[in-house]
Specification:
By secondary structure, the chain is α+β, with helices and mostly antiparallel strands. 41% of the residues lie in helices and 24% in strands. The strands form two sheets. The protein has a seven-stranded antiparallel β-sheet, with helices on both faces. A five-stranded antiparallel β-sheet has the order 2-5-10-7-8.
């Protein structure tokens, strides 16, 4: 349900720890808060890392940042420190390589990696990094996302524009949780993960709210593009414009009208904040083709001109 409580479980950093003790501290913390693993730093400054763990219903979210290092969950560790979850790890920034039993692949900022914690893996970060990691109990994952689980690690974000749009929406959703926002909930996360994993495994994607959420998120991130239109949004979701109109049916407006309303609402917010810049610059930054057009549609929506509000 929207507005679901987000609780901070714990927050730690290695910066206040003596350099020789940082790795042991980090491994002990992760063993209790997330998963058993070994860590090897590759910086002359030692391991500099911080982590915040949050609870969202049955899910856990870890916001992790650090310098160059490698983490590994060995086969022996999988046996001695079992963990029955699926991790959805979204690399916000940095570059990495992911090794697993069936091979390896590179990971760059914006990619999402999905993997089973019962299987061994090595995740190496070659530069300063930040990741948003969702801990999904495997029973929840098989019920809500993919009945067969994750037989082998998968990386998402590059295969198609539609996949990239879903990953971007998941990123903004998780970043919102990490910042304390409550507009979305755990169902949103599970729907988005299912929208990614199910097609890759040849499974049907159930009719959840994720396509509308992805469409809205794509619009929000592209309001400044003067070419933004219903056709561009439909192409990003890999649906027809007719399908896109059906997706927006419950909103009571067409996709084109929704885009216009969001531009005008954003402009209204900026004007109320007395932001710098001229009205013409504001109009162009939000994708309007001219100040005259912006002023006309703004007056139609709010009953006064942008200049009247600013003055």
């Amino acid at each position: 349900m929207p507005g679901q409580q987000i609780a901070v479980v714990s927050r730690v950093s290695t910066e206040g720890i003596d350099p020789p003790d940082r790795v042991d501290f980090w491994e002990d913390y992760n063993r209790q808060a997330l998963v058993g693993l070994t860590c090897s730093p590759y910086s002359e400054h030692g391991l500099l890392a911080r982590q915040t763990n949050l609870r969202l219903g049955e899910l856990r979210l870890a916001d992790i940042a650090g310098n160059e290092h490698v983490i590994e969950r060995t086969p022996r560790m999988c046996r001695l420190q079992p963990k029955d979850s699926v991790f959805a790890s979204l690399l916000v920034s940095g570059d990495a390589v992911f090794f697993h039993g069936q091979g390896c692949f590179t990971v760059t900022g914006g990619d999402l990696v999905l993997y089973d914690t019962r299987q061994s893996y090595l995740f190496g970060f070659s530069s300063p990094m930040r990741q948003l990691l969702v801990d999904i109990p495997r029973s929840v994952f098989t019920e809500r996302c993919l009945p067969g689980g994750v037989p082998a690690p998968m990386v998402f974000g590059r295969e198609s524009a539609a996949e990239g749009a879903i990953v971007s929406t998941l990123r903004s959703t998780l970043a919102g949780f990490a910042a304390g926002a409550r507009e979305r909930d755990e169902d949103t996360v599970l729907d988005l993960v299912q929208s990614l994993a199910a097609p890759r495994a040849g499974e049907h994607v159930h009719g959840g709210p994720s396509r509308l959420i992805v469409a809205k998120d794509y619009i929000e991130r592209n309001l400044g593009d003067p070419r933004l239109c219903a056709g561009q949004v439909a192409a990003a979701l890999d649906v027809s414009t007719r399908q896109l109109s059906r997706i927006f049916a419950d909103e009571g407006v067409s996709p084109a009208r929704y885009v216009l309303h969001r531009r005008l609402d954003r402009a209204h917010q900026e004007l109320r904040r007395h932001s710098d810049g001229t009205i013409a610059e504001l109009a162009l930054s939000l994708g309007f083709i001219s100040q005259a057009h912006f002023t006309r549609v703004y007056r139609q929506r709010f009953g006064h001109t942008p200049g009247q509000l600013r003055s």
